[in-house]
Amino acid sequence: MLELKNLSVGYDGRYVIRDVNLSFEPGMIYTIIGKNGSGKSTLLKSCSGLLKPKVGSVLLDGKALSQYPANQRAQKVSYLSQSTSTPNITVERLMAHARFPHLSYPKKLQREDINIIYRALGDMRAQCFVHDSLRELSGGERQRVYLAMQLAQDTDILLLDEPTTYLDIEYQLSLMKLLQKLKAQGKTVIMVLHDLEQALKYSDRIIVIDAGKEIHTGTPEEILNSGILKKVFHVDVRRSEYCFE
Ligand code: ADP
């Protein structure tokens, strides 16, 4: 289980998130929402261990995340960031990296690793790109490969920052269904989503960061009824009669 205890994080001398206490249980989907610049990515990044707490701690199974060797941490927690630069490697090579935390010396992929890699590519319908250079792919194709990479890392906790970026609606929906399957397997999914409708529809808990950087958590129903969405986003939210399947 991942827990944030009195966590404050930020950059240089500036705090972005202050004194947050949250627990992320297995078999649940959590979605962080809030306006641009409210600190969603910062909060997610601190859950990954890549951004160190200024105050407080991030605990994984009761032990500070920062005390895990990188390899052990990567066996338990995977993190899909909002991609910035694209490495100049093939999809096959990229996918192999996902299995490295699970390999002992001399880090040679075993049959089982290859099966996991192809299953993950299959889940994202991305097998056809396996010999392509990552840089030749479109934004959406590349995003599917990054998602497959994260699946192949096969961790109990998945952190995803805007995972639907560049994806066509068809792939967005199949990703949401896949995340529900992972949840049913007992995994913890923590993500940042832009799309409020998807956030309310697919999450067990919503974490809202408001303008004052205060954190509100609740079930989608509780968040809908609390009026916080109106306060943060300045929009009225009604139940939609349209439904994409
Ligand atoms: P969100 O994901 O909600 O859009 P972020 O967590 O990316 O927000 O950013 C929160 C604040 O932290 C913003 O003011 C942003 O400019 C600042 N910030 C984000 N990343 C960095 C960084 N690497 N260095 C300095 N400031 C940053």
Short descriptors:
single chain, 245 residues, alpha/beta, 4-stranded antiparallel sheet, globular, binds adenosine-5'-diphosphate
Task: Walk me through this protein's architecture.
α3 (91-99) runs parallel beside α5. This protein is α/β, with parallel strands linked by helices. The model has no long low-confidence stretch (mean pLDDT 94). It is 36% helix and 24% strand. The protein has a six-stranded mixed beta sheet with strand order 6-7-8-3-9-10, with helices on both faces. The protein has a four-stranded antiparallel beta sheet with strand order 2-1-4-5, covered by helices on one side. The chain has helices at 40-48, 70-76, 91-99, 111-123, 139-153, 169-184, 196-202, 220-226, 228-233; strands spanning 2-11, 14-24, 28-34, 55-60, 63-64, 77-80, 157-161, 188-192, 205-209, 215-218. Bound molecules: adenosine-5'-diphosphate. The site of adenosine-5'-diphosphate has 10 residues, from α1. Adenosine-5'-diphosphate binds next to α1.
Give the strand line-up of the largest sheet.
Answer: 6-7-8-3-9-10
Taking the alpha carbons of the first and last residues, their distance comes to 32 Å
- What is the helix tally? 9
> Which ions, cofactors or small ligands are bound in this entry?
adenosine-5'-diphosphate
Structural class: alpha/beta
Described by the principal axes of the CA atoms, the overall outline is globular
Unreliable runs? none
The main sheet comes to: 6 strands, mixed
Computed over alpha carbons, the radius of gyration is 18 Å
Question: How much helix is in the residues?
Answer: 25-40%
In round numbers, the mean pLDDT is 94
Which percent band covers the strand fraction?
Answer: 15-25%
SSE order, one letter for each helix or strand: EEEHEEHEHHHEHEHEEHH
The number of distinct β-strands equals 10
